[in-house]
Amino acid sequence: MKNKLIKINGISHTYDEKNYVLKNINLEIYENEIIALFGPSGSGKSTLLHIMGNLMKPVSGNIEYQYKPINLKTGFIFQSFNMIKELTLYENIKIAQLKRGYDEDNEIYVFAERTGVSEYLGKYPSEVSTGQLQRAALIRAVVGKTETVLCDEPTGALDTENKINLMKIISELSSERTFFIVSHDNIIKDYCDRVIMIKDGEITQEV
Ligand SMILES: Nc1ncnc2c1ncn2[C@@H]1O[C@H](COP(=O)(O)OP(=O)(O)OP(=O)(O)O)[C@@H](O)[C@H]1O
Ligand SMILES: [Mg+2]
User: Which of ligand 1's atoms lies nearest the C-alpha of 22?
Assistant: First the structure.
């Protein structure tokens, strides 16, 4: 039986107290699965992701997590990488690991090896390719023993080859953690255990 990791209970959200951009979202997320959330622009995907990652509070509803603290156990990957440009890839990753309470260079080196960026760790974000940047962002999201990685259009800036590379690595890493991926990108569906559709703030379909 799969272990439940996150339980979303009746989340609703509005930014203007008029239009609800999320309407009574209920969802269970299990350990070690890759879930994709698909839906049109403006359907509420990023809003839900931010609420799940505790970046903002919903107007109503709640989320139960099987781990604590949520902030330190959640990694993020964004479409535009969000690397700190003044720091090398290694330093970007190291800061996240330290903040999560770990100081294990070996963990960084092992993930760098697995994702093929070992030789780029000492470089600055401006000195590497977009594919390499996104793999470094993935390492940053997993080091320090995160439980859940929330991804907002992680393949949006990548070409097809790099998209497939990234999703293969995510598939491998999902034996140890859960990935929740917001996307428009059909390529990623092949790598997900479940695909959920959202429209106008409501989950319409689960495949
Ligand atoms: N900070 C904000 N203030 C006001 N309205 C917002 C804010 N963020 C999002 N919205 C609105 O909430 C709705 C849902 O936005 P959200 O960003 O969650 O959609 P999305 O599905 O992620 O879209 P996209 O695919 O374009 O990224 C949209 O109508 C958007 O305009
Ligand atoms: Mg979005």
Answer: 14
pTM: 0.95
Distance 199 CA to ligand 1 centre (A): 12
Q: Which domain holds residue 87?
A: 4-206
**Domains contained in the chain, number:** 1
Ligand 1, atom 10: closest residue by C-alpha:
15
Mean pLDDT, residues 17-27 taken together:
97
Q: How far is the CA of 186 from the centre of ligand 2 (A)?
A: 16
Q: Which amino acid is at 110?
A: V
E strands present in the chain: 4-14, 20-30, 34-38, 60-65, 74-78, 148-152, 178-183, 194-199, 202-206
Residue 193 sits in a domain of what CATH number? 3.40.50.300
